[in-house]
Design a protein that fits this description.
4-stranded mixed beta sheet, 3 helices, elongated
């Protein structure tokens, strides 16, 4: 048995905006497939035109997303985040600025001992990102 494990993101009407935003930030990223709710489908007219299911890649890694037409008492939480190891300090700063724009900074870019350049943000769509440049020291 060789199961595939894929991060799956649930939005409430913002999936296409999120996917388009995220693939604009990273090279080697693309929308592989996107299917939208049509007329008369599940969720009724409110769901029409939103994402029924999508597959996209960020830096070649596969993700899935959809828009839930069911209202939930929960959304994204920072206890699950996407950890990005940046190739340069310039990339780290650019990603930090773009992802925090309209979002919330949980940890500003700084030296936290376990990393000399690290930051944590929740983007405007609620997804949590840890951004790092340099070696990690968890000893």
């Amino acid at each position: 048995m060789n199961p595939k494990i894929t991060t799956f993101l649930m939005f409430e009407g913002d999936a296409e905006e999120a996917i388009t935003f995220y693939i604009s930030l990273f090279d080697d990223s693309e929308i592989v497939r996107i299917k939208k709710y049509g007329p008369g489908g599940p969720g009724g007219p409110e769901a029409e035109g939103t994402v029924q299911n999508a597959v996209f890649t960020l830096k070649g890694r596969r993700y899935m997303a959809f828009d839930s037409y069911i209202e939930h008492d929960f959304t994204f939480t920072p206890s699950i985040s996407l950890f990005v190891e940046c190739d340069s300090e310039e990339e780290l700063k650019a990603l930090f600025d773009k992802l925090s724009d309209g979002g919330e900074v949980a940890m500003p870019l700084d030296n936290y001992g376990f990393s000399t350049r690290f930051g944590w943000v929740n983007d405007r769509l609620g997804v949590s990102w840890q951004l790092n440049f340099g070696p990690l020291n968890f000893e």
